[in-house]
Inverse folding.
């Protein structure tokens, strides 16, 4: 027999984030992305020279990854 009371579907979804918070997150993300881009270019160039290969992640991907890591840390603090 199935217990239908433990898996109730409610009409109210989780509270939606306000649009202002998303905008603020994107502003912080853009600032951090621009700030990490020069260092990402430098580390990418050094890694490319050392390994003599350009197949690793490029500087844009490196900066994007760093911004994705750092920005949520600011909002969780």
């Amino acid at each position: 027999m199935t217990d239908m009371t433990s898996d109730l579907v409610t009409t109210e979804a989780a509270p939606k984030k306000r649009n202002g918070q998303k905008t603020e997150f994107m502003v912080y993300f853009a600032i951090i992305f621009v700030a990490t881009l020069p260092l990402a270019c430098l580390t990418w160039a050094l890694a490319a020279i050392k390994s003599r290969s350009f197949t690793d992640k490029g500087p844009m991907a490196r900066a994007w990854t760093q911004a994705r890591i750092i920005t949520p840390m600011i909002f969780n603090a």
Observations:
- The helical segments are 19-51, 59-76.
- The two ends are 46 Å apart (CA to CA).
- Residues 35-76 form one domain.
